[in-house]
Amino acid sequence: MKRFAVLILGFAVAGFLVASFLNAGDRSVAPPATTGLAGPATADFPSTHVHDLAIPRNDVTLLEVATHRGLYESTDEGHSFTAIAGEFPSADMTVLAFDPVSRDIVYGGGRNLRSASEGLVRSSDAGLSWELLYSDAIPTAIAIDPDDPSRVLLVTGEDVLLSTNYGVTWDSVFVPVDPESITSIAVTKGETVSHFISGPDIGLLASGDELDDWNEISNSALEGNTVVIEASAVIAGRLWAGGQTIVMSDDYGGTWHDSQEGAPGDIVAIASSVNESGILFAAAGDPAQIIHSTDNGETWETP
Predict the structure, then answer these.
(1) CATH number of the structural domain spanning residue 209
(2) In a domain, 21, yes or no
(3) Considering just the CA atoms, what is the radius of gyration of the chain in Å?
(4) Which end of the chain is more exposed for a tag (fewer CB within 10 A), N or C?
(5) Assigned domain for 3 exists
């Protein structure tokens, strides 16, 4: 009888080990949760705030969200969300960006990371595993050059950094403002103007590729709308700025549309596609609601 009980126990342990192995690569740790999107998120979607959004190349049905409670993704254009397990199921993720060429390469940063208490990490398998790139401070904004993915710009509360080798090494970039005041950074297809930094206390500043001459962009439509800046990877000169609402420019910030139909206030993040689909997502409010544009930001609606 004892031998039989031991045998049964052995089968149970073996079954558990096999199941654990098969589920080791599963990114989903929570069932899909419909947020309603016009109001507060449900319990399975973070009830706190969204820090950043990202859309991979050539897959505008996928939206990934960096939150105070880890990473989430939607595969149905923002109608429902599922937690991404990977290595950071509950980290405070402050930045998120896909490589503009490969959808499997994604950068993320924040605090409470397993490989470091804070810093920037990169995944080559769409978020299942990560390698540490930078660990000296908490990232607050990130941007990748759409024409040269090896160029990564990173903002922390202490510095603005540039990497020209996919985040392996970093050099400090001069900016005429306190890095702590920068809440967003963007890189667009440029002529003489291609890099932008913004923040509620500094407005919008622009520089060329050399990053050594920053000029302030002033426009009445930008007042209250410099919390986040997003640049098109497809349309030269196209910018979106978010804050009290969403405003848009087609000439590198020279002129702006003063408002966009359907866009609510308290915009905290904007993500644009890196192809010609015209798809954008934005996060507004706290708890966040997700809004969606299919015409390059001319109009917005809940998915």
Answers:
(1) 2.130.10.10
(2) no
(3) 21
(4) N
(5) no
Report the run of H or E that residue 206 belongs to, with start and end: strand 203-207
Which letter does DSSP use for residue 222 in this model? G
Residue in 223, 244, 241, 222 with CA at minimum distance from that of residue 231: 241
Stretch 114-137: mean pLDDT? 84
Instruction: Using the predicted structure, report yes or no on whether residue 280 has a pLDDT greater than 60.
Output: yes
Q: How confident is the model at residue 262, as a pLDDT?
A: 72
Determine the Cα–Cα distance for residues 112 and 102; give it in Å rounded to an integer. Answer: 26
* 264 located within any domain: yes
Q: What is the DSSP letter of 10?
A: H
User: What is the per-residue burial (b if ≥16 Cβ within 10 Å, else e) of 128-147?
Assistant: bebeebbeebbbbbbbbbbe
Model pLDDT, residue 37: 27
The Cα–Cα gap between 149 and 154 comes to 13
Please identify which residue in the block is written with the tokens 């997003």.
230
**Region at 162 (left for phi over 0; alpha for psi -120 to 50; beta for the rest):** beta
Kindly indicate the confidence band of residue 96, based on its pLDDT and cuts at 50, 70 and 90. Answer: very high
Domain of 63, in residue numbers: 30-293
Structure tokens given for 46: 């973070």
Range 259-295 burial, b when 16+ CB lie within 10 A, else e? ebeebbebbbbbbbbbeeebbbbbbbbebbbbbbbbe
Distance set, CA 87 to CA 82, 105, 115, 182, 195 (Å)? 15, 15, 9, 28, 32
How many domains is the chain partitioned into structurally? 1
Count CA atoms closer than 13 A to 30's CA, side-chain side: 22
In whole angstroms, give the CA distance from residue 106 to residue 126: 6
Q: What is the C-alpha separation between 175 and 207, in angstroms, rounded?
A: 10
Most confident among 20-29, 83-92, 123-132 (mean pLDDT): 123-132
| Half-sphere exposure in the Cβ direction for 95 (13 Å, CA) | 32
Q: Considering the chain, what is the average pLDDT of its residues?
A: 79
Asked if residue 302 belongs to a domain, the reply is: no
**Mean pLDDT in residue range 48-66:** 82
